[in-house]
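Researcher: We're teaching a course module on how sequence relates to structure. For the next exercise, students receive a sequence and then see the predicted structure as tokens, so they can try to spot secondary structure elements on their own. Here is the exercise chain.
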Amino acid sequence: MGEKAPTNVIAVTSGKGGVGKTNVSVNLAVALAQQGQSVLLFDADLSLANVDIALGLRPRWDISQVLSGEKTLQDILLTGPGGITVVPASSGVARMANLSPAEQAGLVQAFSELEQPVDTLIVDTGAGIDTAVLTFTSACQRVIVVVCDEPTSLTDAYALIKVLNRDCGVKRFDILANMMDSELQGRQLLAKLCNATDTYLDVNVRWLGSVPRDNFLRKAVQAQRAVVLEYPRSSSARALQDIARRIQAEPPQQMGGGMSFFIERMLAAREKTG
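Model: And here is the predicted structure for the students to work with:
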């Protein structure tokens, strides 16, 4: 069997909860699939699994059964809307933040044996700066930080960027402004954030785009559907589709051997953050 093609591995994270991070993850995954990508969406919020809830899915098994050896990764995969594939997390089970050496080896093996090719892996992390968030985020090739127009969102996003840079060596961050009244409002948030990062940190903070405040998005969330499928002509869906196109236009920054490469990086990052 030949070497697997490189997978574009993207973390979607935030400094605080309540900014719509999981909804961004879900819709970017579906939008990328609509654009011809094979997409795996990994729910890496270890203490509060919510990707399945956002999509109205009912997993029989989750990542904890892979760790225990009861199931393979292939066994637990869910087919989501738009043809995406979902790796469901365990609600209230944080074992992946404290993996034994045997579990580490098993997880690497599980991802490396995944049968289907994956063009893009989206890792929906928890919010904040705990060890699990830092571990997953720093293992990814691209880090998208979701912010909204709240003072705590910006201060917590700065704290996350600072810790990822200082402790994990992450240098580049893409900013996605969610629930905006205008693109100008989003760019003003970016300017405020860059004021702090340019002064105190050696990082590259870039503008990825903004998602407008939209009643159709709220309806889609309430219906546990992806807005890019449910209301594809809405302003929020169009914005998310545009952002997905920008992501797809940039190839993976680092070359590696498919999914196992991400997990190996995750475990190396864990050594730094643990």
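Model: If you want an answer key for the exercise: The two ends are 35 Å apart (CA to CA). The CA atoms of residues 48 and 91 lie 5 Å apart.
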